[in-house]
Amino acid sequence: MDEDEDARGERRKPPAAAVPLARGLSAKLLVLTACFVLLAEVLIFVPSIAAYRVRWLEEKLSTAAALSIVLVEEDAASLSRQVQDDVLMAIGAKAIAVRDDGVSRLLVVSTMPPEVDEHVDLGNSSMAADMGSALDTLIFGGDRMLRVFGKVGDSSKEFEIVLPDRKLRIAMLGFSRNVAFLALLISLTTAMLVYFAIDRIMIRPIRAMTRSMLDFGRRPDDPGLVIVPGRRDDEIGVAERELAGMQAELQKTLGEQKHLADLGLAVSKINHDMRNILASAQLMTDRLGTIKDPTAQSIAPKLLRALDRAVSYSSGVLAYGRTQEPPPARRRLRLWQVVEDVQQLIGVGAEQNIEFINGIDAGFEIDADPEQLFRILTNLCRNAVEAMASQADSSTVSRLAVMAERQGSVSRILVSDTGPGLPKKARENLFAAFRGSARSGGTGLGLAIAHELARAHGGTLDLVESIGGRTVFAIVIPDQPVRLDDARSGLRRPA
């Protein structure tokens, strides 16, 4: 299969293809930073334009107040119309008035507008009202007439002017353009600074880790593609070190898996010849048993058991090398008979100085696959027999017992022996093939296969106890759940 095709034969892009700049983290970070800064500027802009409007009107009122003081002293009524118009034109107003001691006096006036659109009290205004008025003037203003009044400085007089808002709106638009340009400049500058800082601190290391994962995914067996972590002590440094550790562990695991695959292939190739050789050896052993020689009679059973073990180990390796076990074909079994079959297979008897106890009640039933349950018990019992047979002292009690109990819909089988117990290394790698053997030269496949078969039943295989003189394994297998459709159809079926 082409390396650019998946398991379904469909074409896919190479995993190490570079991400386009427009869709990379850097571009997204740059755009998001600029947008967030602009959003912050917009939130600041509304109170800023409101404050600018108030300041502009205060300046006009202050100018009118200064002129009003002069006009009050010089008697504004004596001024000619041309002078009054020039005064009003200078400040852009239509009329100027002053209120003192509750008396209002119109100082100068041009053409009095027929109506005033908005009254602005500079002495009693709120921020919310100022912002609303500023936006209203900026969007809809330009042809309105404003009446602006309030006190100026420490004066007790209240001054008042009437003026159009056209120049105010023009000034506010100019201020808005300046603010927009400044906001855009600040957002771009901030975005660039944040971009370079984040790119240096985060994006480059993340890009390096991404590139390392993609390259490692293509050639996981190449030690040079394991990422070299830096000395950083932050989250990026932790991620680099963890990634390096996972890649190294995965590379080690893949190497072990490759060795196992090579082993399975080699065993498959020699299995046929091995069985022929073992078959010939068994035939010769049978003939050896017919010889009326005490030495031959004593050697023949041992040789036969050794050959049986060799066949069993070869079969175990082949069974473990299969891709997966078939799903269990479960049915109700009498556990006592299964244990009896296991005892006959492993050949435990008085000649081995091992007592076998089948403590299962004759009526005890279990819901399991008969072949797979037989293999589980055979592996556990054979391991126990081999462990006890290694004890050279004939005075040591050697006993193998199989008990069972039911707790609701769960069956629990206990396999105990009086062997020397499991060493620490075997307990740490209990169900790991080729690492969980309790004796020298063992493969550890028995427990691995038994554990896999127990899990296929939805149950567990656990080591309950392992000390000198006692080792107990527990097999827990729950009954199959009852399917409601089957139960209902059974109830509807006529007797």
Rg on CA atoms, Å: 48 Å
Order of helices and strands: HHEEEHEEHHHEHEEHEEHHEEH
Gross morphology: rod-shaped
- Fraction of residues in β-strands: 15-25%
- The low-confidence runs, each spanning 5 or more residues with pLDDT under 50, are 1-17
Question: Can you count the beta strands?
Answer: 12
Biggest beta sheet summary:
5 strands, mixed
Question: How far is it from the N-terminal to the C-terminal residue, by CA?
Answer: 58 Å
Total individual domains: 3
The average pLDDT is: 77
Distinct helical segment count? 11
In spatial order, strands of the major sheet run 2-1-5-4-3
- Measured as a percent range, the helix fraction is 40-55%
Category by helix and strand content: alpha+beta
